[in-house]
Design goal:
Helices cover 74% and strands 0% of the residues. By secondary structure, the chain is mostly helical. It has one domain.
Amino acid sequence: MKFESIDRSIAGFMHRYGHTALRFSLAIIFIWFGILKPLGLSPAEELVLLTVDWMPLLSPESWLAVIGWWEVAIGVLFLFRPTIRFAIALLAMQMVGTFMPLVVLPSVTFQDGRIPYGLTMEGQYIVKNLLIISAALVIGGTVRQAGREQRS
């Protein structure tokens, strides 16, 4: 009986605060990782520069700054419930570019002779973004709930 009470309490806490914690975690990650890019402090800088080298209009270094500020914008938008939809839209566009190295730089993202299963550290860094996409799906699933709760 005691276990049931503790379990119910813990599960209730997770239910109350889980979505908010997930949203703020995404905000922190995007702001932190994003700001490192224009400051020249990102460990992903070389990978990003190699990935965007072919892109028109801007230099790879300028694209790096644009991507960094884009990520900061995603993070800031996740901080506020009314802007979650915009955060997810920007994140969806950003994720296309994030996965691009798996296609355009397989020699960097996969171990020699081990495509498609033998990821390098860079490849793992990219594939972990599946978790970020899943988190965005969970958060996105709550955007209409706020309106229903306020009407109740």
